[in-house]
Amino acid sequence: MGDTLEFNEIYQEVKGSWNDGRLRFSKQNVVYKSSKTGKVDSISAGDLNLAQWRRVCLGHGIKLGTSTGNVYKYDGFRDTDFEKISEFFKTNYKLELTEKDMCVKGWNWGTAKFSGPLLSFDVNDNSAFEIPLSNVSQCATGKNEVTLEFHQNDDTEVSLMEVRFYVPPNQTDERSDPVEAFAQNVLSKADVIQATGDAVCIFKELQCLTPRGRYDIRIYPTFLHLHGKTFDYKIPYPPVLRLFLLPHKDQRQMFFVISLDPPIKQGQTRYHFLILLFSKEEDINLTLNMSEEDVERRFEGKLSKNMSGSLYEMVSRVMKALVNRKITVPGNFQGHSGTQCITCSYKASSGLLYPLERGFIYVHKPPVHLRFEEISCVNFARGTTTTRSFDFEIETKQGNQYTFSSIEREEYGKLFDFVNAKKLNIKNRGFKEKKGMKGKIDEYSDSDEDKHDAYLERMKAEGKIREEGNDSDESDGESDESFNPGEEEDDIAEEYDSNASASSSSEEGEGSEDEGAKKKKAKKVKVVKERKERKPRKEKKQKDTGGPKRPMSAYMLWLNSNRERIRSENPGISITGISKRAGEMWRELGKDDKEVWEAKAGEAKKQYDLAKKEYKESGGGATSSSKKDNKKSAVKKETKRKSSGGDKDRDRGGGNDSFKSKEFIETSESSSDSDRKSKSKKKKKESEEEEEEEEEAMSTPASSEPESD
């Protein structure tokens, strides 16, 4: 047997919800890491004094007890894991893993036992259920009853609200009240915040972004009290997961972020993060409401009775000592502007994205913290509104997607190198290699290789097109720079005139203005790319409605016969869900079963070929095509006649097209006029040819035409 045992998909019950994670037994300790929050529980091997193997709802579970009175329960083991875990405990922990049965009789009369942080209700020395006293939010007593109320968890579909215990009166000792004794045992371990004693220190009028407002923060030994004008919040220290100290982009302010699980609540609103904003210039002299001996004994040199410095440093230092968590700061990342954050937008609000050593955090509305280990892939997407920005998309392993938009284009290289250095999977890299070769692509290649970067290639191509456009308008740019109102008339004319021979310098006023406008139009035409000649459209095949229907494939035959079965096995399934489930079942179908349906499809194909052959021999399909050709030719003749009539009217009327002003006649004719003339000549020729054809048709003798009834 090795030095460690590792198990995946092990569940821990947290206030009524099951959180999965990974459990590892080693010689030194037992470590459990939650997949949801990333929180790590570590139990030293020397502290273990209880190990029980129990049959629970999720297979089998282990209950571990420590010498300090803490109890840890982990579920999700298989029946076959008992032997190797038992042997590992005997060898490394010198502890026997005992099997303990649970009571499943359903009796509601038993014995209540308080063992550490658990209240166990036993029936015939077997535990029927256990209540973690840390989940209790309130304890009320009656004449012979004790009522326990519980903290609610938003992640659970069904929550336990309260449990009532009937406590019979004590017949032997009338002086002691068993109800009060029961309630005191519950309250000693319950998570009921009681503000007893004085606060360690108080910070007045701190600006809080989430929840919004200014609050007085009173720091007690076991909890944090936020006192505002409208609301008060009491936050115990165990729910605090992480502390962040983040510099603002303006380098004059600091964010202090407290991550909470479970969150604090105000009505239906949940606050998973507490965000404080400080000015770097604000200083404070802080005196703790404790004696120097108590400070030294309690905080072991982390704090002193009298401290002074920046306000954000004092708050973060006190919180670190009381919560006993490390403070996370930005790593080595530096953006284009030299700061450690990136300006972007998430949903409808603008904020700051901080790339950390082990994740990303966005502040502030709403705050988002994403750890690298829960990120499935990232994607660099083109901005929807402008090419001067791009979007950064993060997809988690749970299927959630976070899009941070409106990031400046200059930040792209820095962010791409950071993501590449952290070895995160980039979704839109390497498309060219995928098309060109079938071999395996190195997803962790060097960030300097631009060929792996699809977005960077697009940005370069757009830059080249923009440069070509600027080169073609170079004469416009030069004239704008050289234009001065005080210069001579010849210089002003050169601003608009790229072809000196085309205009006479003697004529000024309205004529020169018209020429300038025409020249500008001619220059704009140069920038426009030449259009390629379109290929003639292929005529659509006319569907023959009278012919035999095409046969179904083997999969469609199988789907038609199994559709009702899929719908009955999955009540409420959508149409797309049926197709998805059918595709999975077809892939899992055996080769022999598939051959049966393929044989049916082959038989249907033979029948279709035979029916189609008979249909063609009987003359089906030919008449419809001939009718279609006759219809097309008739439509063409009508359109020709209409166009010739319209040209004649236009030639007769003349209209304003033939009129030219004096200024227009003196200048050289534009290409558009010449094109219009050539088109009108062509139309005249076509109309004359059609008139000749009609005259010939009228002059032909009647005997040459077929007789009609």
UniProtKB/TrEMBL annotation:
Record domain HMG box: where: 548-616
Protein's UniProt keywords contain DNA-binding: yes
Biased composition (Low complexity): 698-709
Cleaved signal peptide residues: none
Protein name: FACT complex subunit SSRP1
Predominant localisation class: nucleus
Region (Disordered): 460-554, 615-709
